[in-house]
TrEMBL record:
InterPro entries: Epimerase_deHydtase (IPR001509), NAD(P)-bd_dom_sf (IPR036291), UDP_G4E (IPR005886). Keywords: Carbohydrate metabolism, Isomerase, NAD. GO terms for biological process: galactose catabolic process via UDP-galactose, Leloir pathway. Its EC number is 5.1.3.2. SUPFAM superfamilies: NAD(P)-binding Rossmann-fold domains. This is UDP-glucose 4-epimerase.
Length: 335
């Protein structure tokens, strides 16, 4: 089969493209390069990279026809909860409008398999620590709302057309399979700490008054290589021809507090001499978000393979690859 990966030059998208290619799948990448980096796919000479946006329905339909695409992995989206609170219409245009355009192109060309990049942000604050897919979603940001609307849209289209789909609710993606594929954005906790260390400043913690054991938020951190392998499992499930209309968590089932993550980063980089600085909470951040990973094990036979230290170590190697000046602040041989 041939799969189109939208957002294929992005951080997660490129990992998915590489994983699918390594698994023997034929892949075409589509990316508007607003945040994507073509060099992430430079070593994949047989993977075409089409420059364009999913909002361009006619372009997407042309790509689907020209490359005889049989399934789509839709990752292209804007993904910052805090930014979405400031720019809700932008997020609805990009995430909901982009998906609507893609689904129209798929319907027009008869492509009936879809893996959708959803998010744990759909859950919002819940009364339980471990989140199952059956929870009533209460997103706390327009970003989370757009992902939930996307799931609804896909389910409605599936009922009308027979579309087979798997929506994957990622928890906190981090790390890198290879240094050159690392996240170049500084929007999430781990790269934000790296940026502070590179500037020889203490890490920042946003809020230490949450109802958690150490007062900081708790998240389920998933190695991006594991997220990529979940996509391979989803693609193969859809390719098997079985009926598929699933919403699945992609997580480890383990929670780690922000303070614990920061302490692990300081250990890996050898900067335990630094004391984190605590600031106020960020809007849209729930206190606890941990995946129940049971359903994805049952449906796809998938489970995460990496722990937090592997995530942080690989992320630091990626940061050093893109920011060699950071080597001067590390005090350990591993740094």
């Amino acid at each position: 089969m041939t799969w189109l990966v939208t957002g294929g030059a992005g951080y997660i998208g490129a990992h998915v493209v590489h994983a699918l290619h390594a698994a023997g799948e034929r892949v075409v990448a589509l990316d508007d390069l607003s945040t994507g980096v073509p060099e992430r796919l430079a070593d994949l000479e047989d993977v075409p990279l089409v420059t364009g946006a999913v909002q361009a329905t006619s372009l997407v339909a042309k790509v689907l026809r020209e490359y005889e695409i049989e399934g789509v992995v839709h990752i292209a989206a804007k993904k910052q909860p805090a930014e979405s609170i400031e720019k809700p219409l932008f997020y609805y245009r990009e995430n909901v409008g982009g998906l609507e355009s893609l689904l129209r192109a798929m319907d027009e060309t008869g492509v009936d398999r879809l893996v959708f990049s959803s998010s744990a942000a759909t859950y919002g604050n819940q009364d339980t620590d471990v989140l199952t897919e059956d929870a009533v979603c209460r997103p706390e940001s327009p970003y989370g709302e757009t992902k939930l609307v996307g799931e609804w849209m896909i389910a409605d289209v599936a009922r009308a057309t027979g579309l087979r789909y798997i929506s994957l609710r990622y928890f906190n993606a981090a790390g890198a399979a290879r240094p050159e594929l690392a996240d170049t954005g500084v929007f999430n906790l781990i790269p934000m700490v790296f940026e502070r260390l590179t500037a020889e400043k203490p890490p920042l913690i946003f809020g230490d008054d949450y109802p958690t054991p150490d007062g900081t938020t708790i998240r389920d951190y998933v190695h991006v290589a594991d997220i990529a392998s979940a996509h391979v499992a989803a693609v193969r499930h859809l390719a098997s021809g079985v009926e598929a209309r699933h919403v699945l968590n992609v997580g480890t089932g383990r929670g780690t507090s922000t303070r614990q993550v920061v302490e692990t980063i300081l250990e890996v980089t050898g900067r335990q001499d630094l004391t984190p600085e605590v600031l106020g909470r960020r809007p849209g951040d729930p206190a606890i978000s941990i995946a129940s990973a049971e359903r994805i094990r049952q449906v796809l036979g998938w489970s995460a393979a990496h722990d937090l230290r592997a995530i942080v170590t690989s992320a630091w190697e990626g940061w050093l690859y893109h920011h060699p000046e950071a080597r001067r602040v590390a005090t350990t041989p591993g740094g």
